[in-house]
Amino acid sequence: MKAKISLGAVLLLAVLLSCATFSQTAYKTLFVSYYSYDATLSVLGDLYKEGKVAEEEKVHAIRLGHIYSKAHNEAVGALAKYEEAGGAGSQDAYKVAATAMADALVELIAYCRPIIERSE
Question: What is the pLDDT of residue 29?
Fold first, then answer.
């Protein structure tokens, strides 16, 4: 049952994204990635307050968070430039920035996940 729900969700998402414009999809990507970043660091912060995260781990996670945040801001800027051009500009700058943003988010989550799982 769970597999059917997951497959259904993926198919629905694919249909919705195929109907969306480039800008709509880009905004959704920016929103979801920022929400993931915020949720990850919020959970880690709560665990730190409970004494379940070492100072060095917190500092490293914050450093990775800054890298993500910078990449996110660059992706936002690239999308803004695309839209200022009335959508007539190239999507390439946004795609490069969004890829860097995604890579930074993956690195942050990959670092934090074992810390969070160990603390549960």
Answer: 93
Q: What is the C-alpha to C-alpha distance for residues 53 and 7, in angstroms, rounded to an integer?
A: 36
> How far are the Cα atoms of 4, 19, 25 from residue 22, in angstroms, in the given order?
28, 10, 5
**Euclidean distance between CA atoms 112 and 43, whole angstroms:** 9
Q: Identify the residue whose tokens are 């100072």.
A: 55
Amino acid at 16: L
Q: If 0-12 CB within 10 Å is exposed, 13-18 middle and 19+ buried, where does residue 51 land?
A: exposed
- Region of 87 on the Ramachandran plot (φ > 0 left; ψ -120 to 50 alpha; else beta): left
Write the pLDDT tens digit of every residue in 36-82.
Answer: 999 999 999 999 999 999 999 999 999 999 999 999 999 999 999 99
What is the number of other CB atoms lying within 10 angstroms of the CB of residue 79? Answer: 21
Task: Give 104-117 pLDDT, tens digit per residue.
Answer: 999 999 999 999 99
Look at the alpha carbons of 12, 18, 23, 25 in this order and tell me if their dihedral is positive or negative. positive
If you search the block for the tokens 């993500």, which residue do you land on? 68
